[in-house]
Amino acid sequence: MDVLAGLLDGPRARGAFLLRMVMEPPWAVRIEDRAPLCLMCVTSGEAWIVPDGGGDPVVLRAGDIAISRGPDPYTAGDRPDAVPCAVIGPGGVCRTLEGEPLAESMRLGVRTWGNAPDGGTTMLVGTYRMDGEVSRRLLDALPPLVRLPADAWSCPLTPVLEEEISRDDPGQSVVLDRVLDLLLIAALREWFSRPGAEAPGWYGAMADPVVGKALRLIQDEPARPWTVASLAGACGISRAGLARRFTELVGEPPMAYLTGWRLATAADLLRGTDATVESVARKVGYSGSFALSAAFKRVRGVSPQEFRRNVTPAVSRTLVSG
Predict the structure, then answer these.
(1) Is there a smaller number of Cβ atoms within 10 Å at the N or the C end of the chain?
(2) Cα angle vertex 22, ends 18, 26, to 5°?
(3) Has this prediction a pTM greater than 0.85?
(4) Sheet architecture: strand order including 94-95
(5) Which DSSP symbol is given to 96?
């Protein structure tokens, strides 16, 4: 398993919020759902995405895809200066600026919502809950907004999502989750490989025959008692050679990366399972709960038990509701 696949494998879409939005100008919707990641595909017309905080507005035209990294709010509209008429909050709840529910008045069918059935702009929206901590490395590697123009890449998955999003067959939510995952992975691979994309060090290092192998070993077997020497031996290089090459390509030493991966995996297990701290510790390479607790508190500022108590339960996302 490569590093990008691993980052997406744990916190995959599970009941993701998916919506086909059909709008006729003038329109604008403010997004305040605090979702960590949202993927938007314009299939007809155009939409402007305006981040909060002074970020440059981005226009999406038919075939373009955008990835928005939360939790900061933004506005989608037919113009960069459009005034929102609706606000989408956590859980996909949609209301007017005065707080009145809009779910029923703007419902246009299965997972379809908007102000006109034949509106000139159609946008597919897939929002991840993505509450697993392993994904934090991926989220930290992304800018607030990524845009992939239609003329720069060709992806056959957008028509599949468009066809499936308004169906209501048995098991449809699982189908949509997997299509969304595939589309996200395809978009991220394309973006990370583009010149000037400022891909994280670990992504470029995956292609290196030595460091890429070291990354896969760390990810696949975090419980092994790795040292720089044993990792170097498994990769067929000297200890000094691996340390130098790994740090140069990834941006941090092998053992620092290993610690970060172990603690991120531990956080994911604490959040997503009822495994004991002792069990989690041994799964990620610590001798027991005391050793994990010491490392966890040193890096994250709280103990594993405190982290688990403070985790906010994921909100199940359904069709935009009021």
Answers:
(1) N
(2) 130
(3) no
(4) 58-61, 46-51, 74-77, 28-31, 86-88, 94-95
(5) -
**DSSP annotation of 42:** E
Three-class DSSP labels, 98-124: CCCECCCCCEEECCEEECCCCCCEEEE
Predicted local confidence at residue 144, as pLDDT: 87
* Residue partners of 67: CB distance under 8 A and separation at least 6: 37, 38, 39, 40, 142, 145, 146, 184, 187, 188, 191
Nearest to residue 31, comparing CAs of 167, 158, 197, 145?
Answer: 145
**What does the block give as tokens for 142?**
């992304």
Dist CA 174 CA 153 (whole Å): 27
Q: For position 133, what pLDDT does the model report?
A: 38
Question: Residue 49: which of 80, 90, 87 has the closest Cα?
Answer: 80
CA distance 91 to 113: 15
Rounded to 5 degrees, what are φ and ψ at 124? -95, 130
**Selection from 212, 213, 223 nearest residue 261 by Cα:** 223
Non-local CB neighbours of 261 within 8 Å, separated by 6+ positions: 218, 219, 222
Question: pLDDT tens across 90-130, in order?
Answer: 878 899 888 888 878 889 999 999 999 999 999 999 988 66
Q: Which positions of the chain have pLDDT values less than 50?
A: 1, 10-11, 133-134, 312-319, 321-322
CB 277 within 8 A of CB 142: no
- Cβ contact 288:278 at 8 Å: yes
Residue type, 188: L
pLDDT, position 322: 45
| Residue 105, pLDDT score | 85
Contact criterion met (CB below 8 Å) for 177 and 13: yes
Q: Using an 8 Å Cβ cutoff, are 258 and 243 in contact?
A: no
Rounded to an integer, what distance in angstroms lies between the CA atom of residue 292 and that of residue 284? Answer: 9
Q: Which residue has the tokens 């707080």?
A: 99
C-beta separation of 48 from 66 below 8 A? no
